[in-house]
Specification:
It is built from 21 helices and 16 strands. β15 and β16 form a beta hairpin. By secondary structure, it is α/β, with parallel strands linked by helices. It starts with 15 loop residues before the first helix and ends in a 17-residue tail after the last strand.
Length: 570
Amino acid sequence: MEDKFCSCRSNWSYGLARECRRGLVRGMGYTEQEFDRPIVAVVNSWNEYNPGHVHLRALSQRVKQGIREAGGLPFEMMTTGICDGMVLRDPKYVELPSRNLIADEVELTVESNMFDAMVLLSTCDSIVPGHLMAAARLDIPAVVVTGGYMPMPYLDGSSANYIELTDHVGKALDGSYDRARAEREVAAMYGPCGACGVMTTANSMCLAAEALGMSLPGNTTASAHSSELLQIAYRAGRQVMELLKCGITARKIITRDAVENAIRETMATAGSTNLLLHLPAIATEAGLDGQWWKLFDEASRKVPLLVASSPSGPWHFQDIDRAGGSRALFAELMPLLHGDVLTVTGKTLRENYADAVNFDPRVITTLKNPAAANGALFVLYGSLAPEGGIVKEAAVPESMRRFSGPALVFDTLDQALDALHAGKIRGGEALILRYLGPRARFGTTAYPFQKELKGMGLADRVAIITDGRFSGGTRGACIGHVSPEACRSATSRRKRRWAVRWRWWRRATGSSSIWMSAASIWRWRRKFSPNGGGTGAGGSTEPVTINFCGSFLAMSVPPPGVRYGRYEPL
């Protein structure tokens, strides 16, 4: 072994354990010279059932080639890789349970085998944060390779936007759109591989990984079909060996300033609201603590929107790629970032993007002429969300920036869908979906309900408020991650008492849903909820009122000294 790698943890002193492993490795056909190299985990989430990951096997081969040429011995391992879009029937296991499972899978394999470094390959929603959490937790040299974006196919002369086409599916189900046309659109909706080519959770997290300094410059906006992505994979394999040589581990890169960079980049690109779950979890694994929601809130007022990508604007990722990609984006945003943070290149963030060129300021706008003056995500407060709720403000239509209407309350997604199909939702209501939060149901998404609302032409006429989450592609007046969630800090006894009284009320009214004012909701929550309704101010006799311009939710501004909420996974 070369002197530069003598300190590798895989090279422990002679003994039974080492010699058993050496014999097992030799038994698989490896030579003595190979065994003396540093061993590197190639953490791959490839599978055949996720289009975002179906091409990762080819990338892993390039990663392994780079590792071998730089003096390492790569071993490929697999992790879970679920596509959000393919599990919408029951999405309760996706975002948080699978993310945490993935982090545990990586820890189990990497630590038990004492790998010296790792390269992590992922693309989609919860897999990227799971890999980043593992990197921060293990604190060994690590590089993340994300699988690139899925170019939008063309349909009738223009690029197909799957967000719009899925709206048409909802209309077809309602009978208000031609079924044959919808079937043809479904056939042309997606490309063969890569992250959905708009600013959903997958691309939002890939950009965040690059903002954290954990992936190579330009990785996010390289097409999944491109030779550029194969080149990035090869360079990542070589670069992880350089990190090992220099002793640069993940926590030297994932710092507080790096997390702030990821938050600010999320604001500048109208990233997914699910990053409110993922970035704090990554920071926690890196040993960092802070009021992360506060940083999101502050960034929303300081960082303008530079890229109006669908669903917050007209552009797709292929447009961003054409305009200069993530390199041009970070170059334009650099005055608002901590440019001196370390990255996996061994250089600072500022050095990585110093030579980037913005080829189309219409797509990637400048700080002097941004797409919007404020960031895309806002933290809202009020009697229904005393510790905060999240809205993607950039995707809210102007007609819904101020909204007032009666509340219609549901305890499950099935209840809400039943009411929709029965014609009980007619427009003008605030739809409150509770018990979908991380503790109650793993942070379940309300996306299927949103899409059916859209199909029936109601999406721009109602507001949705939930302690669950939304898809990264959410549009409309949708407030999620409401804190405290409905069942937070509840004992089993109190949960049962609440459930009994709630069922009694439904029987008494003969309805599966309840119309009530915000004041009534607040009184019932205060009287019967396990945590006493939180710390917010009192209610009002008015119906639910949402005012995005004033940045508050449901009649009341936060009281002095309000706490910024933070979700725990389970």
